[in-house]
Amino acid sequence: MAFRGRVALITGAGSGMGRLATQRLAQGDVRVAAVDVNEKGLEETAGDRASIRSYRCDVSDREAVDLLVKQVESELGPIDRVVNAAAIAPSGLLLEQDTDLIRRLMEINYGGTVNVTKASLPGMLARGSGDLINFASLAGWLPSLQLGAYSATKFAVVAFSEVLYHENRGRGVRMVCVCPPKVDTPLLEQAKAKSIDASPMIQPVEVLDAIEESLEGGRFWVFPGKGTRWVWRVRRFLPGLLWRRLHQIEEL
Question: Quick check: is 150 catalytic?
Answer without folding.
Answer: yes
